[in-house]
Amino acid sequence: MADFYKEDLSYIHDAGYSDYALNASTGILTTLSQNNIQNGLIVDLGCGSGISTLEFIKARYQVLGVDISEAMIASARIRVPSADFRVASLFQIEIPTCKVVTAIGECLNYLFDPDNNEQLLVQLFKRIYQALEPGGVFIFDIAEPGQIDKNDEQHFTEGNNWLVLVEKEENAEKSILTRRIITLRKVDEHYRRDDEVHRLQLYRSTDIAHKLRRIGFKVQTMRSYGRYQLPKAHAAFIAFKPSASD
């Protein structure tokens, strides 16, 4: 577990890439309000450093945050001391009875689990369906094939006392995206370097929607969370578990 989103990358992700989680959670809260889900437990899978968790807590929901990164969870516990957090694989954790499950930021694509595959993803969908109360909702997003433009194979981002370089490669035949990430973070008087390699299994939104419907969900596919437009080749889903009156 410690090989992904270690201390420096977790810090940089929190400091420089928080807009996605913040904007997505705002859109999710609007969706919940529109569907009269005003309270209850949200299970925030892939919660990261707790940015989305904090927004849910501020809206008076209870939250269980789950992430595979110990460094991310350490930050989340500082940011949101009133929430419950666990370091675990989202494919292995037992999901309690809840009203809402979220998975923001393509976390279902990540091949952090050595045995992660489509079968395991479907099993997760089934466990979420069973855990949701009738009328509950599963809201998440995925990365699709077509992630890389010709001018987007390599880029760097610079912040206050840190820099991150990302090199991307997409295997079209296997629908796998590889990100090679180099971080430089100033610690005391020197810059510390770290390296991570992230692999993502890319899924087509039509295939994901089909799998959800076969389990019993009512599914809506989106290209935004409310007013927040998703990046290129990403899709979001609102998957409802029917209530007794449906």
Automatic annotation (TrEMBL):
One of its GO terms (molecular function) is methyltransferase activity. Pfam families: Methyltransf_25. Coiled coil: none annotated. GO terms for biological process: methylation. Residues 42-136 form the Methyltransferase domain. The keyword Methyltransferase applies. Keywords: Methyltransferase, Transferase. This is Class I SAM-dependent methyltransferase.
